[in-house]
Amino acid sequence: MKITNVRACQPLTPESPDDWRTSMGQILVAVDTDLGVTGYGVGGGGFAGIHVVQSVLRDVLLGQDPNQIESLWSAMYDATLAFGQKGIVLMAMSGVDLALWDARGKCERRSISELLGGAKQTRLPTYITVWDNVALAKVADRSHQGFKLHLGEQSPLDESVDEFADRIAAELREARRLIGPDRELMADAWMKWSRTAAEAVIERIDDVQLSWLEEPLPLDDEAGYKALVALGTVPIAGGEHEYTSASFQRLVERKLHSVLQPDVNWVGGLTELIRIYELAAQHDDIRVCPHRGAELWSLHAIAALDLQPLAESGRPWMGWVDGQPPILDGWIEVPDRPGFGAAIDESTLKTYAAPQFADHWQSRR
Ligand SMILES: [Mg+2]
């Protein structure tokens, strides 16, 4: 079998937020083969990601055997080493890698979880992220098995660290009261807190039983992360904005996180997610909980490889991926269709038009 084409586009997502998740949004990658099988994957990077696929990755893959995924991954990584390694290039590579896995599954008529050794369980618990306790109160029934409160805000200038920490701790205590003692509760600071503020919050929430505190600090504050992990009181999570298993290896070796949250559509695809699970398996104190894991692209790996599965609810605006299983009463079924089980109807797909680079260049006049 040989790869005959590699294509990418950015499907229209009218419901997506007006931020980088649209302007640098999800791209759809198709890998066509001479057997007539097309594999699909989703990556990131918007038009910049499409440019990486069309101008570099496609040339690496044309004529190659799509089953050699690991060596093709290395070839793509090597071809982009001078300008890649992280960010948009890895987001684009993720889509290609997932499309290769999808093609393999379709050719072998096996689901991705079967390719990974089989699902340990085909029904996985889910969690949802909410932005405040008002929203949490509305979903805190049996709708999910876990809940995450998004607390990504900097402390206002007129608020002392103690006042900030008291307020955040009170919100978390109220969240725990709303969901009861049995289900998982997490908090996400989205890289916005200072180390002092994070330490003050952690000091106050012994009774809250947080499963993890996510991205409490800016990502380059390694000393801060090390200090928070060393406290040993609340597991420190992160990784949705990190790229490649090699980077996760450094996070583990330097003891910067104890919960790893790779995003399969950004980190380098399924090939890298598998390696991150293998890395975690060597450490008793490391948990993996993929970012937006309830989307089809992570679901199979969670089912087959995760010892403590919990799938984060996905992005509702990606309606162009048919076959996404619904979440029912906090559980999601892993599909057993070949590949990831995603159905893409190219005949009805609407995409963003190519940006007018020439007009942009001329706009100075
Ligand atoms: Mg997050």
Describe the protein in words:
With 365 residues, the chain is of the alpha/beta class. The chain folds into 2 domains: 3-109 and 355-362, Enolase-like, domain 1 (2-Layer Sandwich); 114-333, Enolase-like C-terminal domain (TIM Barrel). 38% of the residues lie in helices and 16% in strands. It is built from 13 helices and 13 strands. The strands form 2 sheets. Strands 4, 5, 6, 7, 8, 9, 10, 11, 12 and 13 form a 10-stranded mixed β-sheet that branches. It has a 3-stranded antiparallel β-sheet with strand order 1-2-3. A hairpin with a 4-residue loop joins strand 2 (27-33) and strand 3 (38-43). Helix 2 (46-61) crosses helix 3 and helix 10 packs parallel to helix 11 (270-281). The chain is globular. The N and C termini lie far apart (51 Å).
CATH superfamily of the largest domain: Enolase-like C-terminal domain
Total count of domains: 2
CATH structural fold name of the largest domain: TIM Barrel
The share of residues in extended strands comes to 15-25%
User: What shape does the CA trace take?
Assistant: globular
